């Protein structure tokens, strides 16, 4: 890859708007689209999404769990989805939330971040809650191949604060510590670093409450919950503040429920991108 992920993502967001569409082929959506809850249905669903939206949104984000639940054939469908998005010229964020230590983390990095691996998209979601240093094999692999990471930081699920709001031995919150580590990896990058964070758009005052400096991260902020999912301009100002222009809004079911018609999917994605741009750049 000729340019780092952060550079390529910034260009895609400028061209298509700050929207990432998740590809989440869960059972209810497969049924709504008239497809079976099996690997064949997952494959058909995913390729229809790529065909409809490839080249029209900043990124696509297949959720690995919905493929893995169908075993080897489901993983093969994920590989084909990544390849189809690449052929369409659209960035992919593989949402696998991997996190482990040592050689095991190295194995995940080899699977999802190595050139030539069929599971390697353009970026990978990872979990830092075994300690940010445990992500070193993934960070090294991403840097070497020009790929990116999105590190879980501040999520909107109700269980999140018991870990994310906790304080370290040094007195900083876990969330602030994760953000500071990401910022260090992005130092000097322009216009965006390649190590981003996952920050829910509906977390309210949690960024301020945890003392987290998102603007200093200098990387993309993947934000579920923007626009039709609940967070408008006021909520985004409260959560992201000066970092709003780093935000890549993530929408999955809000767009996918418009399918299976390709035109309806394109219209839903275009509207979601307009809403996100108005909220984030207004």
SS content category: alpha/beta
Distance between the termini: 33 Å
Structurally, how many domains make up the residues?
1
Physical arrangement of strands within the biggest beta sheet: 1-2-3-4-5-6-7-8
- Taking all Cα atoms into account, the compactness measure Rg is 18 Å
Inertia-based shape: globular
Relative helix content: 40-55%
Main sheet attributes: strand count, strand direction, barrel closure: 8 strands, parallel, barrel
Q: What's the CATH first level?
A: Alpha Beta
Tell me how many strands there are. 8
Indicate the CATH topology. TIM Barrel
Low-confidence stretches: none
Count of alpha/pi helices: 13
Q: For the record, what is the CATH homologous superfamily label?
A: Aldolase class I
Overall CATH architecture: Alpha-Beta Barrel
Provide the succession of SSEs.
Answer: HEHHEHHEHEHEHHEHEHEHH
Strand content: 5-15%
Mean pLDDT: 95
């Amino acid at each position: 890859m000729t340019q780092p992920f952060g550079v390529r993502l910034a260009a895609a967001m400028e061209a298509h708007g700050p929207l990432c569409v998740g590809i989440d082929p869960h059972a209810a959506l497969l049924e709504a689209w008239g497809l079976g809850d099996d690997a064949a249905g997952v494959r058909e669903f995913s390729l229809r999404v790529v065909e409809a939206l490839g080249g029209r949104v900043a990124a696509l984000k297949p959720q690995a769990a919905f493929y893995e639940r169908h075993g080897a054939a489901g993983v093969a469908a994920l590989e084909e989805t990544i390849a189809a998005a690449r052929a369409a010229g659209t960035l992919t964020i593989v949402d696998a939330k991997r996190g482990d230590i040592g050689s095991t983390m190295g194995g995940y990095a080899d699977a999802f971040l190595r050139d030539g691996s069929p599971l390697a998209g353009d970026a990978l979601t990872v979990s830092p809650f075994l300690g940010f240093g445990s992500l070193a094999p993934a960070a090294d692999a991403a840097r070497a191949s020009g790929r990116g990471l999105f590190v879980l930081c501040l999520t909107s699920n109700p269980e999140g604060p018991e870990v994310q709001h906790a304080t370290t031995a040094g007195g900083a919150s876990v969330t602030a510590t994760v953000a500071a580590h990401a910022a260090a990896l992005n130092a000097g990058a322009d216009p965006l670093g390649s190590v981003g964070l996952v920050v829910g758009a509906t977390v309210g005052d949690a960024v301020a409450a945890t003392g987290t400096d998102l603007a200093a991260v200098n990387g993309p902020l993947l934000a579920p919950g923007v626009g039709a999912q609940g967070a408008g301009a006021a909520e985004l100002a409260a959560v992201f503040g000066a970092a709003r222009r780093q935000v890549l809004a993530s929408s999955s079911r809000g767009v996918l429920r418009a399918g299976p018609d390709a035109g309806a999917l394109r219209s839903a994605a275009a509207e979601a991108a307009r809403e996100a741009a108005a909220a984030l750049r207004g």
